Amino acid sequence: MKRLANAEIAKILxxxxxxxxxxGEPFFKFMAYExxxxxxxxxxxxxxxxxxxxxxxxxxxxxxIAARISEICATGTCVYLDELRAKYPLTLVELLxxxxxxxxxxxxLFGLLGVASLADLEAALAAGRLDGMPRLGAKTIENxxxxxxxxxGRQRRTPLGQALPIARExxxxxxxxxxxxxxxxxxxxxxxEPTVGDIDILCTSTDAAxxxxxxxxxxxxxxVLAEGETKASIWLRGxxxxxxxxxxxxxxxxxLQHFTGSREHNIQLRELAVRKNLRVSENGIVDLxxxxxxxxxxxxxxxxxxxxxxxAPELRLGIGEIEAARDGALPAVVELGDLRGDFHMHCxxxxxxxxxxxxxxxxxxxGYSYHSVSDxxxxxxxxxxxxxxxRAQRERLREIGDKYGVRSLRSSExxxxxxxxxxxxxxILADLDIVVASVHSALNISRDDxxxxxxxxxxxxxxxxxxxxxxxxVETFPGYEFDYDAVFAAAARTGTALExxxxxxxxxxxxxxxxxxxxxxxxxxxxxxAHGADQLANVAYxxxxxxxxxxxxxxxxxxxxxxxxxxxxxxxxVRGGAAxxx
DNA sequence: GCCGTTTTCGGCCCGACTGTTTTCAGTCG
Length: 582
Fold this sequence. Notes:
This protein is α/β, with parallel strands linked by helices. The protein has four domains: 6-153, Orthogonal Bundle (DNA polymerase, domain 1), CATH 1.10.150.110; 158-247, Beta Polymerase, domain 2 (2-Layer Sandwich), CATH 3.30.460.10; 261-326, DNA polymerase, thumb domain (Beta Polymerase, domain 3), CATH 3.30.210; 336-575, TIM Barrel (Alpha-Beta Barrel), CATH 3.20.20.140. Helices cover 44% and strands 13% of the residues. The protein contains 24 helices and 16 strands. The protein has helices at 6-22, 27-41, 46-52, 63-75, 79-87, 92-97, 103-113, 118-126, 138-153, 160-177, 187-190, 208-216, 252-260, 263-275, 299-305, 321-326, 356-365, 387-404, 426-429, 447-459, 484-494, 511-519, 539-548, 562-575; strands at 158-159, 181-186, 195-196, 198-204, 221-227, 231-236, 241-247, 278-281, 284-287, 293-294, 370-373, 407-415, 434-438, 465-466, 497-501, 524-527. The radius of gyration is 26 Å and the shape is globular. It starts with 5 loop residues before the first helix and ends in a 7-residue tail after the last helix. 45% of the residues are buried. The protein binds one DNA strand through helix 2, helix 4, helix 7, helix 9 and strand 6.
């Protein structure tokens, strides 16, 4: 059968968790499934771990859940879920997805009215069958009605590349119209999640009411979901939710830590705190032995009070970072300022929007000491470069680069053909400074064929970087299937870097895979894949994903100086790709 | 169901907002 992706297994665990709660199982029992699902979302490919018998090394996965996961991998489901489904329809999960309907309400609707799905709920609302039920007043029913509409109209999770600009927009609005300080996007946006469920904004102020009032009156707010003394929530058109929290300035560190999450990270942090007789919340850290409260201006102080070094936001997933921090085993992760160049961008010679000179000027303006223009190869329909084009472009690169004071490397994003061969002959590639090779076609070949295809590309002595290695789209496509470990091993063995592509719809390699690849000793690049000068800034997204993968600067090729980059290329050519590898 | 620099048994995070209530349950993050 088809190999299940981690996300699919996590979804099944979440279904089990929901039906367990519905069935009245003990709180900590079903919460264990929730934690396990969260772990899988950010873990290396589960199929490999199952095969190696290493599932229980993952945090929050013990004997029972490991057995269930193995069963799901082997059969696509598990007996325990089937037993639950025999009593409670899986469509109950829909009910709980409706904003305003929680477990108690769903149980009541199912038990008293037989409402078991979204369609059932709509019919019951239309027929007025909710009227007069215990604890369901007119306002609550109206709220549920609105929740149903939102559920049906809601888009999927919002890509980070769309959410971050909106977050900056509301921050700019509040900065202009209120006296709020410390305005900061928090939550999943700050953690650089590839897609986000909502946007969290926080700030400090001595007049929270004024800030909240301005927030709920924002012209883009379609509806106000909640408006209290320190927090408020609005919906934008399309259903994206923004939460705002306002506290006094001396609590900024506590507030930022609290609202950055993740939920799982915070739970684990507070569990650790409880063992030290401390109670952590956004309102400060209370010492339960003497009742004193510590408030923090910075997050560093929060972690220090708990006996931990600072943990970067992108690492806060509740997947072992707290233990690593405690043991002093957290890496100093790469920062945007560590980058000295960008290997992946396009200009009007292929499918970019800006001219070669504009792109070079923009790269220089970012302070890079080098970059490469990697237009597509000719196999990509009409827009790719022919070998003659490539030669002509190369002659202009040095000249324009000199003009702007940056080293413009000769490059190409060459197509990897279905059999693993390349769209340009080696003689042409040999004339380039650095080569990016990417899969753009025949995405549906078999897993084994795709594995062989990528390994063969790695083994070409002129291929230095595999571009967007899984081909995923964060919204629409999980990526083509291949044997990750086999390709990571090949990349490490041949001295081929794997790209972390910063295009917001790609963010590829995904961070769990990058973290896995690092175990094989793979080198990475953080690239923008810019198709216009304004998109060079997308490299920040690539760095965000690298940080989520716990990568230090030394794992990233474009943190190195030009000589070291050229030495990386030369070393592979000298070895002749796979031919002379020990 | 998981887990252990107080535990292999007995613990397991914390608070804001809403609506239906007369002191709190439910929902959410």
